[in-house]
Amino acid sequence: MAAIATAKDEWLPEFLPATEQPPPQVHQVNFPEGYQITAKPLGREDYASPQGKRFAVVVDSSRSMSAQVKALTKTFNWLNQQGFADNSFANNDADLYITGATGKPPQRIDDIRTFNPAKITFYGTLHYQQMLRQFLQLQGNTPYNGILLITDEGVVTVSQSLIRSTHSCSLLGRDE
After folding, report:
1. What is the rounded distance in angstroms from the CA atom of residue 97 to the CA atom of residue 56?
2. Are strands 53-59 and 146-150 parallel, antiparallel or unpaired?
3. Which residue among 37, 47, 62, 126 has the highest number of C-beta atoms inside a 10 angstrom radius?
4. Which of 147, 84, 136 is nearest to 106 (CA)?
């Protein structure tokens, strides 16, 4: 006959509450052949906004992003405050790329001050590869120091299911 465990039989609690925040510390991993990775916590003084750089800001216009208008507005307000929208390369500059779903072409907006997230029509479904392909089509000869892709987790779900679907077809011998 099996014994039945009761609450008083549990000697180890499921969790212990933290009493205080542990201090940040350096972590180091040593690999064969002398390779080494060191992770050092950053303090506030270690953070700095880039200066004199040019960025492409790619905004996902798929349907799932309609729930993110408030966050998108906050992001663009921050970009404006940090000098990304003043068309001056002395501080930073950014060009905007709005992706387009089926039947709606993508757009490039060189002056992001004219962009109002509340007026964008969120439609369709896109995955990362499509968004970046659209960016490359519109980029032309404009060089960038970085690309910022603004999206939500909806695109992750679509991309993961697409990958699973493609992987399943490969396993079944139906590659296209």
Report:
1. 7
2. parallel
3. 126
4. 136
CA atoms 5, 6, 10, 14: torsion sign? positive
Measured in degrees and rounded to the nearest 5, phi and psi for residue 150 equal: -100, 115
Span 27-44, pLDDT tens digits: 999 988 888 989 988 888
For residues 60 and 120, what is the distance between their CA atoms, to the nearest angstrom?
Answer: 11
d(CA 89, CA 53): 7
Both tokens assigned to 136: 């490359």
Amino acid occupying residue 39: A
Phi, psi of 96 (to 5 degrees): -110, 135
Average pLDDT over residues 43-53: 82
- Please indicate, yes or no, whether the overall pTM of this predicted structure exceeds 0.85: no
Q: Torsion angle of alpha carbons 112, 113, 115, 118, nearest 10°?
A: 140
pLDDT for the residue 127 = 84
Nearest to 149 by CA among 166, 134, 164: 134
